[in-house]
Design a protein that fits this description.
Length: 385
């Protein structure tokens, strides 16, 4: 059984396990539930590794490199349950073994449509995810929660007829597999979505009849349940959302066909269950990413500038994007290693992915990265596991 989980890089397992166990116990009171709760969780996993205390067994499993997780999940039901749990991610973080990979949805790869690719650090092979269940869609939403990727709703063409979906699928980055989840209460496309405090929110969009929506839903992963919450003040579509400082921000898009693009920002406070509105928004955003409690956007009319939003004072700042390759390149933003990546939306053989480091000294913020999708980038997410 040990050969199934042995990493390629040799290490002294006993010493590292014991060291990690001591570190975990030292900070247990601050980072983990009470001993009683941990024991209750441990009991639900049965015996992970016979002959080892349960907490030490969890640390040993958490020390295994991420690429072995799918094999580990097939060893036993108890291993599978632990790897799928939120506690597994917490233990890996505590022992310093979280691995950050960026997942990119690419289009036009070899004429075979879209597919999800994994771009990790430079010494890792490019991996391709199993195909998503269901028909190919557009206008869908993607969110990451607890090391899992959620792909929600959107619209698809079925025998020449478009239909709007309420389907939700989960990709488990540890086990490398897709699962169907509870459907939304309202089918929608071109909507806003984000995660805030372990809840997924979707808002606005278009419904099955082409009607604009103001409805908002919240998803609880533990209960696998969608719940309708207080609606937006007005319908909104083509918008985007982000979770910053424990609040949900919805920007961009339109609220009316006649008025034009909206600069208002709808802000939802989950603790107060209420919406407020601020006026200084960003319009026609083609891509966005959140890094270190800052929102980074690229607007359709200005692909040569990063717009950054600070929720502390609702202020905006513009950062010029250097010219590289074609001056007309459109970008899709990604995040990896506390840096912003600018993937090309167009297939340009000579293009090198731009990388922006907010923490770098002045004049050194921009570099290039060898990370590059096989085709044009549709969207990207970052998953730690």
């Amino acid at each position: 059984m040990l050969s199934l989980v042995a990493p390629r890089e040799p290490f002294d397992e006993s010493q590292e396990c014991i060291s990690a166990r001591m570190k975990l116990k030292f900070s247990a009171e601050q980072n983990f539930p009470s001993r009683t709760m941990i024991q209750e969780q441990s009991d639900s996993y049965s015996v992970l590794i016979p002959g080892l205390p349960e907490d030490l067994a969890k640390i040993c499993l958490a020390l295994v490199p991420r690429s072995y997780f799918p094999v580990m999940g097939s060893v036993s039901k108890s291993w599978m349950a632990f790897i799928r749990s939120k506690e597994f991610i917490a233990v890996r973080k505590e022992v310093g073994k979280l691995e950050e990979w960026i997942y990119v949805l690419t289009a036009g790869v070899g004429g075979k449509g879209s597919r999800w690719e994994v771009l990790g650090s430079l010494d890792q092979k490019k991996r391709v995810l199993p195909p998503m269940p269901g028909p190919n869609k557009a206008g869908f939403g993607v969110v990451v929660l607890d090391g899992k990727l959620f792909v929600m709703a959107g619209y698809a063409a079925d025998h020449g007829k478009e239909f709007v979906s309420d389907e939700v699928y989960l990709y488990d980055a540890c086990l490398n597999r897709w699962t169907a989840l509870a459907r939304m209460n309202v089918a929608r496309r071109d909507f806003a979505c984000a995660e805030v405090n372990d809840m997924i929110y979707v808002a606005g969009g278009f419904g099955p009849n082409g009607n604009s929506l103001s409805s908002v839903e919240a998803y609880n992963l533990q209960q696998n349940k969608w719940t309708l919450i207080q609606s937006l003040r007005r319908p909104r579509w083509g918008c985007f959302a982000c979770g910053v400082n424990d609040k949900l921000y919805i920007m961009g898009g339109r609220s009316s066909f006649t008025i034009g693009n909206s600069r208002s920002v709808d802000v939802y406070d989950p603790d107060r269950h209420s919406w407020e509105e601020i006026k200084r928004g960003c319009v026609m955003v083609t891509s966005h990413a959140v890094l270190d409690k800052r929102l980074f956007c690229i607007e359709w009319k200005n692909q040569r500038s990063l717009s950054t939003f600070s929720p502390t004072d609702n202020s905006w700042q513009r950062i010029p994007v250097p010219l590289t390759g074609s001056s007309s390149t459109r970008f899709c933003l990604g995040v990896l290693g506390m840096k912003i990546l600018l993937f090309s939306l167009e297939e340009e053989p000579g293009y090198q992915t731009l990388m922006y480091d907010p923490a770098a000294p002045t004049g050194c913020e921009w570099q290039t990265s060898k990370l590059k999708p096989s085709g044009s980038c549709v969207c990207s997410v970052t998953i730690e596991a």
